[in-house]
Amino acid sequence: MTFPFLGFGVGLRTEHYPYILKNWPQVDWFEVISENYMVGGGRPLYTLDKIRSRYPMVMHGVSLSIGSTDPLNFDYLTQLKKLITRVKPAWISDHLCWTGVGGHNLHDLLPLPYNEETLKHVISRIKQVQNFLERPIALENASSYMEFCSSSMTEWEFLKTISDESDCLILLDINNIYVSAVNHGFNPIHYIDAIPQDKVIQFHLAGHTDKGRYLLDTHDHPMKEEVLELYAHALKRFGTVSTLLEWDDKIPSFPKLMNELNRAKNIYADTILAQNSGETSPVHYSP
Amino acid sequence: MQTQSLHKIQGKLVQFITAPESVLKNPQSRKLHAFIKPSQTLTPEERVDIYANMYFFRLLEGLKKDFPGIHLFVGNDAFHNLVTDYLITHPPTHFSIRYAGQSFPEFLKKHRNKKNGPFLPDLALFEWDLAESFDAPDGTVLTKKDLSRLKPKQWAGFIPSLTPSLQLFSSFYDIAFLHKTLLNTKKTSFIKKEKERIFTRIWRKKLKVVYHPIDKLEYGLLKQIQKGKSFATLCEWLAGQTDPHKAVPLMAGFMQTWLKQGLLYVF
């Protein structure tokens, strides 16, 4: 299965519906939150269909809970499959995390202990999900604020092994790598350099908030320069990869969002030009 | 290092994250040191507390959007406390946060502090009905032309279909008025209990959720249709509620109104 290069997209948010439907702006593609459209009908599905008719689309979930020790939710997967049939996305993705246990949904993306027990558990579940959906899924590295004593490997080693052994793809969130790197004190370059080049299908970019003693992945600010520098490094390693800007709170107007997306496009252009001319630029990192 | 199974770790974290008190004030939180590492700047308790805060505030914001009238009526602090109590008894179980508030009206019925607004459970139910109507399944609106295809002998057995977005609401309080006033003025408004129930139908007209006051007869008739009754049974039911001679013209009038307002769907 091959996946197209979609270019530069943004997350589809309800605040932008009127603008998009009126102006049909120049943007390469949209990523939708799958669960927002797992409803019977009405405005969500009407708008989804309208926008899908004009733009490429990717589905991004938040409720797969691939790392939970609860049984897989086949009601969820059935609805997801139905939405896939409707949207015909270029690919689908979710997060390498768990969102609840014991039937209790925390509606958050919680990290996992990185060890053999978790590897075995998650790989088995990814295979079940991919079999059920009859397609590969991409998993995103979530930002995190805690680490487990029982981890016996790094997050990037864990992600690489998961991808190698389950044949899932990787949605590499550059901002999440940076946030977790600062929160846990690792070098984000090591992370990026350890990820297999042939598995990364998409990049996420976003803004975060500096809370003083840690970084919080808030998606409510412009992208930080450090994240864009990491993005440049990732582009050098992975080459042309579809890139998406997420913005979920204090959402700016669509034209302002496009201006922000242009910052990423400029990095892409500069990086490709630099590569073509044999130049390199340094990546700065200070945890 | 003590090895702990993934299931145990997840179970313990859920307990700490969903506890009503901050992780930092939880007398059991020292136990986190057994499986959460400290960072250079944060203790294990502080790290887990980040998740506890995100859990609560994400749901608080979601419930504010689902129940804007309740939020406006009780104010920020009281709403915060209501949500704290609600999440203890009704933790979210659905995969979508969209359904986190589905038991909120029922919770308010049983909640101890009703003195400021005995109508709050009804207001919450009204707001939940609006949300249910918003994304209910689509269908094709029935037209006069569709109905004209029915042969005279088919009418008695004809079973009308209603839009799945239709919600039938009733209360001894004028909740629709209260809701509109709250959202328009952003100010608390009190309403008195009425002697008779007030009936309202809520439905989606094209993509917009609308509501309209109706009388007891129409409310009862729509309830009968929701139960899948035939046209003949509906007319009989109507005859039992009013002057039997007026039942058929009354029924015809209702059908015309429902057709016009897009309440009937293709059968």
Quickly list its features.
heterodimer; A: about 290 residues; alpha/beta; TIM Barrel; eight-stranded parallel barrel; two-stranded antiparallel sheet; 9 helices; 12 strands; disordered C terminus; B: about 270 residues; mainly alpha; Outer Surface Protein A, domain 3; three-stranded antiparallel sheet; two-stranded antiparallel ribbon; 11 helices; about 50% helix
Task: Indicate the CATH architecture of chain A.
Answer: Alpha-Beta Barrel
Number of helices, counting only DSSP H or I runs of 4 residues or more of chain A: 9
What proportion of the residues of chain B form beta strands (DSSP E)?
Answer: 5-15%
Number of helices of chain B: 11
Order of helices and strands of chain A: EHEHEHEEEHEHEHHEEEHEH
Overall pLDDT level of chain B = 93
Enter the CATH topology name of chain B: Outer Surface Protein A, domain 3
Spatial strand sequence of the major β-sheet of chain B: 2-3-4
Anisotropy-based shape of chain B: elongated
Coarse structural class of chain A:
alpha/beta
Q: Compute the CA-based radius of gyration of chain A.
A: 18 Å
Structural class of chain B: mainly alpha
Helicity level of chain A, as a percent range? 40-55%
Task: Write the element-wise H/E pattern of chain B from the N-terminal end onward.
Answer: HHHHHHHEEHEEHHHE
SSE map:
The complex is a heterodimer of chains A (287) and B (267).
Chain A (H helix, E strand, L loop, with lengths): L7 E4 L5 H7 L5 E5 L9 H10 L4 E4 L13 H14 L4 E5 L1 E4 L2 E7 L5 H18 L4 E4 L13 H12 L2 E5 H11 L3 H7 L5 E6 L3 E2 L4 E2 L8 H14 L3 E4 L8 H24 L10
Parallel strand pairs in A: 1-2, 1-12, 2-3, 3-4, 4-7, 7-8, 8-9, 9-12
Antiparallel strand pairs in A: 5-6, 10-11
Helix pairs in contact in A: 4-5, 5-7, 7-8, 8-9
Chain B lengths: L5 H13 L25 H23 L1 H7 L1 H14 L14 H7 L9 H15 L9 H5 L12 E2 L4 E5 L3 H11 L12 E8 L2 E7 L1 H11 L4 H11 L5 H14 L3 E2 L2
Helix pairs in contact in B: 1-2, 2-4, 3-4, 3-8, 5-6, 6-8, 9-10, 10-11
